[in-house]
Amino acid sequence: MNISVVGTGYVGLVTGVSLAEIGHHIICVDIDEAKVEKMKQGISPIYEPGLDELMSRNIEAERLSFTINHQEGFRHADVIYIAVGTPENEDGSANLAFVEQAARDIAKHITKDTIVVTKSTVPVGTNDRILEIIKENQIHNMQIDIVANPEFLREGSALKDSFNGDRIVIGANNDYAAGMIEKVNEPFGVPIYHTDIRSAELIKYASNAFLATKISFINEIAAICERVGANVEHVAKGMGMDQRIGEKFLNAGIGYGGSCFPKDTKALIQIAGNVAYDFELLKGVVNVNQKQRALLVDKLNERFATLADKRIAVLGLAFKPNTDDMREAASIIVTEILIEQGATVIAYDPVAMENAKKLLHSNIIYAESVEESLEDADAALVLTEWDEIRNADPSGFQAMKSPIVFDGRNCFSVEKMRDSGVEYWSVGR
Ligand SMILES: NC(=O)C1=CN([C@@H]2O[C@H](COP(=O)(O)OP(=O)(O)OC[C@H]3O[C@@H](n4cnc5c(N)ncnc54)[C@H](O)[C@@H]3O)[C@@H](O)[C@H]2O)C=CC1
Ligand SMILES: O=C(O)[C@H]1O[C@H](OP(=O)(O)OP(=O)(O)OC[C@H]2O[C@@H](n3ccc(=O)[nH]c3=O)[C@H](O)[C@@H]2O)[C@H](O)[C@@H](O)[C@@H]1O
To answer: pTM (2 decimals)?
Structure first.
């Protein structure tokens, strides 16, 4: 099928590449010229394991191309996917400006009957609005159907998730559109769940909010563990063995970050608020996460009278391993407080440092390796559990002025660290 994807961020590009890989003809449209130039050469503008290789393969096979021109992008499209950003407004609600602009672009340029598929995470009712915008602004009078098809991939394992997802949700209000989008997705071999549009929209927010709830829940259990002398890893394991609970997303740490959990939890609170429902539980989840992010700085402040003369190594900057994405990373707030308190910060991340430099305080010093960041440091904070950090030899911490480590991702064995003479604090163990 001829498919166009609007927006080539983490979701749009992975969607385009995956659909090309299963045999569709894909043209991706983005307004960012520099990005499009890179992608035309088979270079992914984002770090995502395996993506460059799959892009190049499908470009060579002439199943994948890129353009900044919407008209060219939509000319042959049977289906158009919307995968533009839905960032957070100041009040926490979802900003739909990019989605609405994409709808206007579609309205202006389509010249054949089209199914529009919304991949972006959008509040309930947005697909109705998109359809309305397209119908109101259409130049040629074409038949338009709309399908809500939320995305569940995780950054860092996006391709793996696309080909091995737990489900594909198709929300439609007619059998033709639902059947066509099922056909598009069939080669993935992933279970397909059909529902109405509004339920599909809510499935996405409810799923992210539930996962965020698991994380804040285990983080509160970790706080109790610390106070009563239990070990949160053992507690999580014992809980997770109950299949009704499940073992995943029970890793205690410095909370959730990234481009989605923080914004989607807040957006769902707004969605509920708009229909006069106070989502108390989710408000608690958000508050717990807020506190959790500053946990390591609180611990540092308990350990040292002042940070003014301290050299602090920060290991890991991305919001999670295997991505260069810095959106809502804990490192943003942690490094800001450290610098505010007068500390010297020497940071290292295997992949995200270029993006970090654009976002973090200009006083941060960047190291080329874990070892370099540890040299002469008074304390080290672990913010992201990259394999390179996780696999660091505990004896390496002896290069510090004082081997004191606050581990926000429970990367190291408590026993090994203590045996290596490291003063070690981790979350709830
Ligand atoms: N990042 C993730 O892991 C996931 C994101 N989502 C959702 O998917 C959506 C997209 O997220 P990301 O890929 O992270 O966004 P992103 O911000 O990385 O990328 C959006 C892209 O859309 C482009 N764009 C904006 N307006 C355009 C227009 N009118 N025409 C063409 N291109 C346009 C931008 O230039 C940018 O390249 C959001 O709603 C997000 O909540 C859903 C699941 C996973
Ligand atoms: O809507 C989205 O954008 C996506 O959001 C998350 O994916 P992502 O943000 O890429 O990464 P996750 O692996 O979910 O991690 C999110 C955050 O939670 C933290 N986390 C995760 C798991 C855990 O047990 N503990 C924990 O603190 C991670 O460190 C990270 O900061 C969801 O997992 C995806 O299903 C969803 O599609």
So the answer is: 0.97
pLDDT confidence tier of residue 250, bands split at 50, 70 and 90: very high
**Could you read off the pLDDT of 354-379 as tens digits, one per residue?**
999 999 999 999 999 999 999 999 99
To the query of whether residue 225 is one of the catalytic residues in this protein, the response is no
250 is in an annotated binding site: yes
Measure the CA dihedral 398/404/409/414, to 10°.
Answer: 80
Q: Is 320 annotated to bind ligand?
A: yes
**CA 259–ligand 2 middle distance (angstroms):** 9
**Amino acid at site 103:** A
Q: Report the SS3 class of residue 312.
A: strand
- Domain 204-292: what homologous superfamily? N-(1-d-carboxylethyl)-l-norvaline Dehydrogenase; domain 2 (1.10.1040.10)
Tokens 């203590």 map to which residue? 418
Ligand nearest to the CA of 217: 2
Confidence of residue 66 (pLDDT cuts 50, 70, 90): very high
In this prediction the ipTM stands at 0.99
The two tokens of residue 366 are 């960047």
Asked if the domains 2-195 and 294-426 are classified in one and the same CATH topology, the answer is yes
Looking at 3.40.50.2000, 3.40.50.300, 3.90.105.10, 3.40.50.720, the CATH number of the domain 2-195 comes to: 3.40.50.720
- Whole-number Å distance between alpha carbons of 101 and 83: 12
What is the arithmetic mean of pLDDT over 232-239?
98
CA 43 vs CA 37, 60, 255: distances in Å: 9, 13, 32
Shortest-distance atom of ligand 2 to CA 249:
24
Nearest Cα residue to atom 25 of ligand 2:
251
